Amino acid sequence: MGFATLLVFALASACRTAAPVKPGFRIVHSEDSGVGRVFVVDEGDLRYLRFDAPDGDDQSVISLSDPAGVPMDYVRLALVGLAHVAVEEGHDGFGEGNQC
User: Fold this and answer.
1) 9: helix, coil or strand?
2) Residue 15: partners with Cβ closer than 8 Å, 6 or more residues away
3) Residue 82: its pLDDT value, please?
4) 29 torsion bin: left (phi>0), alpha (psi -120 to 50), beta (else)
5) Of 26, 56, 75, 79, which cross-links 42 as Cys (Cβ 3.0–4.6 Å)?
6) pLDDT tens-digit profile of 39-67?
7) Cα–Cα distance between 96 and 77 in angstroms, integer?
8) Where are the domains of the chain?
9) Looking at residue 20, what DSSP letter applies?
């Protein structure tokens, strides 16, 4: 194994360090599930649901100061799509018999 290969492996290993902790970071809850570890993490005003690691990918998020808000872009876009389907079918999505 040449020097260049060793250097690449060393740099790749150094890049796998943990992400820096953000201000207000706190693990609220964690437990094992049937598919891995689940974490609930606060970062400032936002509370995240993450799988496998406290700094893993965001699965869900809520604003602690505005619980009715929807801070994740993909959730807002999905809700717009559902509203569009409800209007196309001739109801408002809140039960049978309700007309727009």
Assistant:
1) helix
2) none
3) 79
4) beta
5) 26
6) 999 999 999 999 999 999 999 999 999 98
7) 24
8) 22-68, 70-100
9) P
